[in-house]
Amino acid sequence: VGEDVAAISYNGIKILDISDLEDVQLISYGPIVWSSYVCALDIQDNFLYAVYSGRGDEGLMILDISDPSEPEEISRLYIDNYFWDLKVRDDYAYIFSSQFFQVFDVSDPEEPVMVGQIELEFLSWDYTDYTIEVSGNLIYASCHLDGFMVFDVSDPENPFVTAYYDTPGVAHDLAVIDDLVYVADETSLGVYRNTMVGLPDRETIPFPGNYEIVSIYPNPFNSTTTIQYSLPVASPVSLNVYNINGQLVKVLVNRYMQSGKHRIVWEAENVVSGVYFIKIENGWKNDIVKTVLLP
């Protein structure tokens, strides 16, 4: 959204006149991005910035919209990635994608240049619910199953993760006002105060892993075994035992639990010997491990 114009990316780029909010008008269409999907847009001054992803055609496109009725493409930079969101502030464009958080110098819109990035291999990503908001030198990012995190871009060439919070459910979107972060979560609207407590070195950052059964010990077992399982985020979770025919034998867990590693003992009294399957699930992901009950 600009001062008097806005842009939407439904079926391509559409530029709207919003000078009269009671009578919004379609002004023009932006350039067609063939076989690609426009993932995010932002407007600053007389320029429209767009990131798009598709079949071998992904990148950053900048349009001159000083005349909104005749938008003109002035640059297009190929970037091999799947994009989630884009924000532009002053001379920099911040791009959040499936693999990286990237910073581009757009002081010359005809020659955008990447100046810094962070690799995001620790995110358990899918194709939805990843957004960013800018507040001063901090970029707040909602990360779906992984809560939200904060990037420090005070040195654009060396951005880094400065804070992270594992929300109770799935972080769909967020907004930042002063030092408060409002997160639209799967289970709630969360309000968080940024105290800027830094993270330890990257190797020790406890980023979420998977919903998984870590171990069953002993296995095979005779009457009693201990099941250890891991939850990357706080969420409702079920942990059940099924026989080889897929029939439910025992409900071990069925409640809301905090993130982290947990364990529970299965006392298989009055259960016939044989092969059984332990399944953990939370509605989005699951994991199944086989165990054997001895005679």
Keywords:
295 residues; four-stranded antiparallel beta sheet; mainly beta; 57% strand
Task: Give your account of this protein's structure.
With 295 residues, the protein is an all-beta fold. The chain contains no helices and 25 strands. The protein has strands at 5-8, 14-17, 25-29, 36-44, 47-54, 59-64, 72-78, 83-89, 92-97, 100-105, 113-119, 130-135, 138-143, 148-152, 160-165, 171-177, 180-185, 189-193, 212-217, 224-231, 235-243, 248-257, 260-267, 274-281, 286-293. A hairpin with a 2-residue loop joins β9 (92-97) and β10. It starts with a strand and ends with a strand. Residues 197-208 have low confidence and may be disordered.
Q: Are there runs of 5+ residues with pLDDT below 50, and where? A: 197-208
SS element count, helices: 0
Order of helices and strands: EEEEEEEEEEEEEEEEEEEEEEEEE
Strand content: over 45%
Q: Tell how many strands the DSSP assignment holds.
A: 25
Overall mean pLDDT score? 83
Question: How many strands, what sense, and barrel or not for the largest sheet?
Answer: 4 strands, antiparallel
Structural class: mainly beta
